[in-house]
Amino acid sequence: MAAAARGKFVWLETLRSARKTSLVQDGRQKVHYTFPDGTEMVEEYEVSSGELLVRKWKKKSTLGREGKWDYEIGEDLRPVNLDMENISESRGNPMFTRKDNSKAFQWRIRNLPYPLEVYSVTVDDDKHSMIIRTSNKKYYKRFQIPDMERAKVDLEQSAISIAHANNTLIITYKKPPLILEQEKLIRQELVKMKSSRDGDVECTPS
């Protein structure tokens, strides 16, 4: 691997040096990472396909209290206790979630009923953010791809494609070769890990 490429795999080295446990349950390999600053990350992979289904983070508050889990990929499917008014409002609001596949980063925004030609998704001038706009000015969102940020790779407009079906806007960003190679190496690391089927097995940093 060339030196220039090795310099881009900082994320892989970060994962290797973290304290981690692995558990296989319900057809998923669940890997829990704890980083030196106390930040926690959990990833869930489908065992049969190796597809990454969930990535979520938890950071301690400034007072050292336990924070809540923030989902980078996937979504929290546990029921939420809300009064009926808030439930009705939530069901009608656009819901933004990320669900990747092996070749692309992908996002789904539910509850967007407008036709495809209303939407535009562009890379911002900073090359680090994407912006969703509607010509009827009903929806606007700026977001980043943390994987690309961690690899320090600029976004490219040509990698974006969009589709719309069933009131859902689907945004696809083709993964660049560097990201595909890094993901391959991470999967190889996961294969090496010993996983318990009825409890966590702690893995020392490699």
Descriptive notes:
The chain has 206 residues and is of the alpha+beta class. The chain has two domains: 1-77 and 177-197, no CATH class; 104-174, Immunoglobulin-like. It has helices spanning 3-6, 10-17, 84-92, 146-151, 177-192; strands at 19-25, 28-34, 40-46, 52-58, 70-73, 95-98, 104-110, 119-123, 130-134, 140-143, 160-165, 168-174, 201-203. The chain has a six-stranded antiparallel sheet, covered by helices on one side. The protein has a four-stranded antiparallel sheet with strand order 6-7-12-11, with no helix packed on it. It starts with a helix and ends with a strand. The model is unreliable at 1-6 (pLDDT under 50). This is Protein DPCD. It comes from Pocillopora damicornis. Belongs to the DPCD family.
Features:
206 residues; 2 domains; Protein DPCD; Immunoglobulin-like; single chain; alpha+beta; 5 helices; globular; DPCD; disordered N terminus; 4-stranded antiparallel beta sheet
Blueprint of the fold:
Layout: H1 3-6, H2 10-17, E1 19-25, E2 28-34, E3 40-46, E4 52-58, E5 70-73, H3 84-92, E6 95-98, E7 104-110, E8 119-123, E9 130-134, E10 140-143, H4 146-151, E11 160-165, E12 168-174, H5 177-192, E13 201-203
Antiparallel strand pairs: 1-2, 1-13, 2-3, 3-4, 4-5, 6-7, 7-12, 8-9, 9-10, 11-12
Pfam family, one: DPCD
Family: Belongs to the DPCD family.
Protein name: Protein DPCD
